[in-house]
Amino acid sequence: MKEYIGGCCQCDKEVYCMDGFLNGVVGDDGALYCFECYTDLHTPPETARREGLPPLDS
Fold first, then answer.
1. pTM for this structure?
2. Of the residues 9, 33, 55, 58, which has the fewest C-beta atoms closer than 10 A?
3. What is the mean pLDDT of each run of 10 residues along the chain (58 residues)?
C-alpha cells in the first residue's frame, strides 16, 4: 500500500508511507523532509568530507 503523506519542506518532493514505512523523515521541528534533504541538512562537515558529500551551508 502506498499513501501520500505530503511534500518535503525543502524541495517539495512527494513523500509517501509505503507498507507502513515512511520514505522520509519528520524533523524535530515536525517538518517533513525527503531523505536527501534531511541528510544534506544534518550531515556534519567532517562526515560529508569523509563520505564525499557536499558540505553543509552554515
1. 0.71
2. 58
3. 95 96 93 92 67 59
